[in-house]
Amino acid sequence: MNEFFAMGGYAAYVWPAYALAALVLLGLLAATWKGLRDAETTLKALESARPARRRPRNAGRASLNGSADNSAGSPAEASEG
Amino acid sequence: MHRFANPARFLRLSAALLPWCAGATVILTILGLWLSLFGSPPDYQQGETVRIMYIHVPAAWMSMFVYTNMAAAAAAGLVWKHPLADLFAKAAAPIGAGFTFVCLVTGSLWGAPMWGTWWVWDARLTSVLILFFLYLGYMALVNAFDDPQRGTKAGNILLLVGIVNVPIIKFSVDWWNTLHQPASVVRMGGPAIDASMLAPLLVMAAAFTAYFLSVVILRLRTEIALRKIQTLRLAVAGDGMRG
Question: Do the domain assignments include residue A46?
Answer without folding.
Answer: yes
